[in-house]
Amino acid sequence: MRYRQFGNTDLELSELCFGAMRFTSTADHVTLPGERSQAEAEQQNREGRRALEAALGAGVNCIHSSGDYGTRWMLSEILAEHPKRHDIHHVIKMTTPDYEEGHVDPRVLRDSVEEALRDLHTDRIAIVQHLQRGPHVPKAEAYAAEGDARRIAALPEILEPLQDTFEALKREGKVGHFITFPHTMGYAEAALDTGAYAGVAHFFNVIEPEALPILDRLEHEGRGFLAIRPLLQGMLTDKRVQRDGLPADDLKHRAGWDSRYALLEKIRASIGEPDAGWTNFALKFALAHPAVTSLVVSANNERQVEAMLAACDGNYPDREMLDRVYALVEEVGMPPKADLFGL
Ligand SMILES: NC(=O)c1ccc[n+]([C@@H]2O[C@H](COP(=O)([O-])OP(=O)(O)OC[C@H]3O[C@@H](n4cnc5c(N)ncnc54)[C@H](OP(=O)(O)O)[C@@H]3O)[C@@H](O)[C@H]2O)c1
């Protein structure tokens, strides 16, 4: 396992960060549809447990989680007794103000941290990822210019109480770094301009490479980046890259994925088929920029962890490949970013 520094901080993260959003039968966000029997749910939990244990055993030192994912209970069970629990760097998600809320509530920050410390059997959260969805931004405007303008205008008044609370938590030794999960690139620039954030967590993958210019800025400024969903929720894998071969009930047949598969066809026609397959390429692509510290990626079983470990090896694509894919996506237009859950 290779490790990278988070910006110019002293935090060293493994190139893979275990995304804990899907690895239990109780997860709120699934990539596979349908009801599970009791036996299937238990099997899924056993496989998810083995995935996390295999990742930690292979040197993964970072876990991304949230109290909202419906999966914390299993992290809690595993970490309670795990010999490496004090070596893990936790990234947690924290949202305030939420879409329709009028004001920031710094108690959400403190409560999220205290809850995570308890659940994860740790005494420090390395990175708190702040998601500002409001104030007064209906969900439909979350990624639109109207919502953006309101979120950006409110940044100064939102940040003041949050920074006070974060500094207090830091003095108590409970947190390390504060980063933004921006939704849009306009907001990302504005949030970075405030100087309050040590880095950014955002989607970064072959279909969603819009953060590339931000990565250049982060590298220049010594701030870190966490690349979320490098496999685009399982689409950019050998299993799903060929859509017509998927089982009839696979969620990727739904209309919401049409524009993403159309874009992928164009990219495949331009760059060709990667020698070591798509799962491998997609992960290497997301690690190709030096500002990317770690990939926040979900693995549901040991085989998926093994494929990820294999990708974090050898050479990564060069800058020319990043620019080429970025230009192709710009030319066609990136599919609307919208919430992909349930599409
Ligand atoms: N997606 C979001 O909007 C979002 C938002 C905030 C935070 N996050 C964080 O980011 C993490 C990753 O997001 P994500 O799960 O949406 O996207 P992802 O990591 O790009 O995709 C993960 C999915 O890809 C499939 N997969 C993984 N390894 C594979 C392999 N070797 N071969 C074939 N398929 C493989 C698995 O689905 P199957 O097992 O079903 O095939 C897995 O659930 C989350 O756990 C969470 O911590 C995500």
CATH topology: TIM Barrel
User: What's the number of structural domains?
Assistant: 1
What is the H level of CATH, i.e. the homologous superfamily? NADP-dependent oxidoreductase domain
- For the largest sheet, list the strands in their spatial order: 7-6-5-4-3-10-9-8
Q: Which residues sit in consecutive blocks of at least 5 with pLDDT less than 50?
A: none
CATH class: Alpha Beta
**Which architecture does the CATH hierarchy give at level 2?**
Alpha-Beta Barrel
Secondary structural class: alpha/beta
Offer a quick outline of the entry.
This protein is α/β, with parallel strands linked by helices and 343 residues long. The chain has helices spanning 38-57, 72-81, 106-119, 145-171, 185-193, 212-221, 258-271, 278-286, 302-311, 319-332; strands at residues 3-5, 12-14, 16-19, 62-65, 89-95, 125-131, 175-180, 199-203, 224-228, 292-297.
